[in-house]
Design goal:
single chain; 89 residues; mainly alpha; 2 helices; elongated
Length: 89
């Protein structure tokens, strides 16, 4: 891995002929910022230390721990509603 940083030239956007309107200047400014950020990312990749290994094992857990009980609870609530509907008439 070489540690030499290559220079990067920002190329202006071919937005069209004419004078300098605000949108053209804003687009070229955004293009310059994006080029500088990409050059910074490449420099960071070369000189930042590698990401350390995780100490604990990665585990994927479900969001709801009682998700298996939902059909049972819904059937009980539905039965109660049906019985209440018969009794109320």
């Amino acid at each position: 891995m070489s540690s030499v940083i290559q220079p990067k030239q920002v190329t202006p956007l071919p937005i069209g002929p004419g004078g300098n309107n605000s949108i053209k200047l804003q687009m070229n400014g955004t293009n310059t910022q994006l080029a500088m950020m990409s050059a910074q990312i490449n420099a960071d990749k070369k000189f930042d230390p590698p990401v350390p290994k995780s100490i604990t094992k990665q585990v994927i857990q479900g969001f709801c721990s009682g998700a298996n009980d939902i059909p049972t609870v819904l059937s009980i609530i539905g039965s109660i509603c049906i019985v209440y509907g018969m009794v109320a008439k």
